[in-house]
User: Fold this.
Amino acid sequence: MMQKLRKMIKKSIDYILGLFSNDIGIDLGTATTLVYVKGEGVVLCEPSVVAIQKDTSQVLAVGEEAKRMLGRTPGNIIAIRPMKNGAISNFEVTEAMLRYFIKKVHRRKVLVRPAMVIAIPSGITEVEKRAVRDSAERAGARSVELIEEPKAAAIGVGLPIEEPGGNMIIDIGGGTTELAVISLGGIVYSSSIRVAGDEMDLAIIEYLRKTYNLLIGERTAEEIKIRIGSAYPLEEELSMDVRGRDLIAGLPKTVTITSVEIREALQVPIRMIADAAKNTLEHTPPELAADLIDRGIVMAGGSSLLRGIDKLIAEETGLPVHIADDPLTAVVLGTGLTLTMPLRFRRQIVVPTKLDF
Assistant:
């Protein structure tokens, strides 16, 4: 009886406070953090990077400004990414980053804290879920609800997940690739592999080191991936000049590389994503698998923009593959739409958690 009363009181308080607060949806990504504010839409998209003073741990910069410091800081300043493989690797720095983003977008009365819906990888542990909730609460959230990334992405791209039919989503982010088959508002089967955009960048770094004895940084590898990277042969192959440090001479060096070489460099992570897609289909119930023949697979996440990855997945699975209109914002749009759902529907969507009251 007391537990029911507490729940009713909490709901009433949240409803009243919600009238005075801009509630927030967050895609807390390994590479990029996006924030959706209720009634305003997506208002922030910045790198998940924090620059701190090494000795005092004082935060010097967050987001885009901090990313420009990666690999270019003096010894007393370090630029770090507090998220790794979709999970928090540095609790204090993540909290500082969240506080900065919340302060930047939450412009209403300071005393009224926002409620939050945060997207999390489907494969993270209970301890990691708790870390996300604690970081958000300590950073200023009134209440925190968690939603699995593939479900948020499916909502964000407009899939009819509440219907009794199969919907398959592949969300390729920075740290993880999330794959799920969803029906009747729930995940029928999902898998999460810690292979995504970051692994592609590392594969490019390793390829150039082995092939050209050239050492490059993560930012340069990401630029190469964006400019000439591909998962499938292109009609017109691309090339670009890359600058780095010669590992033998120790001096600056420039080499010209082609999209054919980068495609070769990306073979291993791309193959792992394709195999995960086939594995997900193998575990899908026959009736839902039959639905996918017509509906196909929808791809979201920033790394799904890699040229030809949709063609490769389609060839490997034998199903039509569609890339979302705006794959980068699919997950955060899903968190935002969840904020607007009636409470009875939201309970079916978010990850069940115990009330801390």
Notes: The CA atoms of residues 82 and 90 lie 5 Å apart. The first strand starts at residue 24 and ends at 28.
